[in-house]
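Form P-L/3: holo structure prediction, ligand riboflavin.
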Amino acid sequence: MSVERTFKKLVSGVILDLDGTLLNTDGIVSEILKVFLVKYGKQWDGREAPHIVGKTPTEAAAAVVEDYGLPLSRDEFLSQFYPMLSDQWRNIKALPGANRLINHLSGHGVPMALASNSSKSNIEAKIFHHAGWKESFSAIVGGDEVKAGKPSPEIFLEAAKRLNMDPSSFLVIEDSIPGVTAGKDAGMAVVAVPSLAKQSHLYTSADEVINSLLDLQLEKWGLPAFQDRIEGTLPLEPWYIGGPVIKGFGRGSKVLGIPTANLSPQGYSAILSEHPAGVYFGWAGLSGRGVYKMVMSIGWNPFFNNTEKTVEPWLLHDFNEDFYGEELHLVVVGYIRPEANFSSLEALIAKIHEDRKIAERALELPQYLKYKDDPYLKSSLHQQN
Ligand code: ADP
Ligand code: RBF
Ligand code: MG
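OUTPUT (holo model):
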């Protein structure tokens, strides 16, 4: 019996994919596709998503034309769609954890390359809007610089060559299945960060599948560990979400003994899609009542197998009554853990109570406590009268 098998391969360099791994390109693609399809009398419904993630631009174009039965050739589609898309590149957001990862690795002098099926000029145009990215990569390899894009390993092998390092000394981080295949065929370690919901089980050849870049543990690969978690939490650039409290599935209090105030999905689908499923915490302002600590879950609640992504804050206060319809404003200041599945209800409940303790304690730290005074939390109190 060899124990070595349980050890992960150690690496000294990192090769990153761009679209879907560092950048939320899919979000912009679907926004533009919505507008585009209307011109052809079609309605966007996301059916193309599984066919375009990780594909070359021409493959993706062919998939859209076929999926929606557009009266266009692949090239006609591309020549109309691409200008609309490139016009929006400055609006593509970095995915959560992308800036943290790039700054950390470049700060530690870890050799880094960017390898994407996009053309080199498109890669440069996209990253131009993100301060510090271009300088962090010792090599940038585009799909137009090799004979075949991913799933061929060529892009990754070319990146290794340009860094003058052996392919086996790299960790590849990828969101797509063709990208994972390419990385493995290049002889590299591969961590998958699937960009499509509920697809993790398909990434069988990856060495590890994580929920988001926020969960990456670099020390597993022999790279310098992140040092920015405090008392079990990861500080985030605060983000804001609010609206009237609506009825949820009616099982929070009844089944778990943990009430969660569900927010109306109206108007927050974009912000929700930006944030990985998981447990977060921060402050909650309830119109006319006050400001409270909160710990919340974002996701599909795998234990209950929901089909819609929800935001469900548990306000850490005894109300002794419902507050449906009341205006709830949240400032989310930190991240605790990825969404998980549990083998029993008791295990889920125990974990949520552990999350509560972590959030309760962390919110006393000055860097989180200061957001208790954020005007957004009280902004709807004034509107009351
Ligand atoms: P639902 O499935 O409708 O969200 P829950 O059983 O999860 O039902 O209960 C949530 C409701 O309970 C909230 O919408 C709110 O009106 C009320 N509530 C009472 N106390 C709390 C609390 N501390 N945190 C969140 N919601 C609470
Ligand atoms: N549901 C899960 O299936 N997995 C989780 O990891 C999970 N974590 C949660 C963490 C917190 C802090 C809260 C408040 C809820 C969490 N839930 C999780 C959601 C729980 O399933 C949900 O509140 C119920 O489905 C009630 O709607
Ligand atoms: Mg609820």
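COMMENT: The chain has three domains: 13-22+92-221, 25-91, 234-384.
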